[in-house]
UniProtKB/TrEMBL annotation:
Gene Ontology terms for molecular function: ATP binding; ATP hydrolysis activity
Family: Belongs to the ABC transporter superfamily.
InterPro entries: AAA+_ATPase (IPR003593), ABC_transporter-like_ATP-bd (IPR003439), ABC_transporter-like_CS (IPR017871), Metal_Ion_Import_ABC (IPR050153), P-loop_NTPase (IPR027417)
Keyword Transcription regulation: no
Gene3D superfamilies assigned to the protein according to its UniProt record, in alphabetical order: P-loop containing nucleotide triphosphate hydrolases (3.40.50.300)
PROSITE patterns: ABC_TRANSPORTER_1, ABC_TRANSPORTER_2
Protein's name according to its UniProt entry: Iron ABC transporter ATP-binding protein
Keywords carried by this UniProt record: ATP-binding, Nucleotide-binding, Transport
Length: 232
């Protein structure tokens, strides 16, 4: 269970909501709305006392315990070690003891065995995002927040990620995305942010009603054959 109560900072305004155990969430909103900032608050990268994780205030949790409960996966892969390989990076993703077979299982699941001995800094941006995904699967926190995971992925990879999310390989997920069709089909609960304010928090079906689409996206979207597409 995740709960945030009356949180405000320079960007976010009076944020409160509860996500029940095993409920997944999509966070939507335009550029600069505050989505990444909210994710950093929920994972305590922006320190606060307004978030409760599984009935414990996040400010009271030791780092080791907190990372077991929540993992923020950033939109860009950044690393200072120029020489570390994919395999070595994944070894560092375990919270407890390293299980080599788990690394091979995840590499196979994502179809990225061929890059396992490559140096991380040389990967393409899409490959780096797959590495972040692999790392989060190994980390396997109770709640994983993905910040624009699919932004640099090709379409077939986006489809694979969608399938993976549907498989419940990870426990509880919070997904920040600009891919509305992905959000529409995942059918998770939706939180819509506008200028740091929650304008919608509720079911997917309700959010994607025509009246809400025109309220939040004006005439920039249309539904074609049960898919949300840009109304060019
Ligand atoms: N460390 C910071 N210091 C000052 N302003 C910041 C900082 N981080 C973010 N902001 C500002 O806060 C606002 C919200 O940023 P945030 O990254 O949370 O938006 P977002 O909804 O994730 O946007 P996008 O969809 O473009 O990624 C932006 O105007 C941004 O410039």
């Amino acid at each position: 269970m995740l709960k945030i109560s009356n949180y405000s900072n320079l960007i976010l305004k009076d944020i409160s909501f509860i996500l029940k155990e095993n409920e997944n969430l999509i966070i939507l909103g335009s550029n600069g709305a505050g989505k990444s900032t909210l994710a950093k608050v929920l994972s305590n990268l922006i320190e606060n006392q307004s978030v409760e994780l599984f009935d414990k205030n996040i400010s009271t949790l030791e780092d080791k315990k907190r990372v077991e409960l929540i993992n923020y996966v950033p939109p860009r892969f950044e690393i200072f070690d120029e020489y570390i390989t994919v395999y070595e990076f994944l070894e560092l993703s375990f919270i407890k003891s390293i299980k080599k077979e788990k690394i091979n299982e995840v590499l196979k699941l994502l179809g990225i065995e061929s890059i396992k001995n490559r140096v991380c800094v040389d990967l393409s941006s899409g490959e780096k995002q797959l590495l972040l995904l692999a790392s989060s699967l190994i980390h396997n926190a109770k709640i994983t927040i993905f910040d624009e995971l699919t932004a640099n992925m090709d379409i077939s990879r986006v489809k694979e990620v969608y399938t993976l999310f549907k498989m419940d390989y990870l426990k509880q997920k919070i997904i920040i995305t600009h891919n509305l069709d992905l959000a529409f089909h995942l059918k998770y609960k939706v939180l819509y942010l506008q200028n740091g304010v929650i304008k919608f928090f509720g079911g997917c079906e309700e959010f994607f009603l025509e009246e809400n689409l025109s309220r939040f996206y004006k005439n920039s979207l249309k539904v074609v054959d049960n898919h949300l597409v840009v109304n060019l």
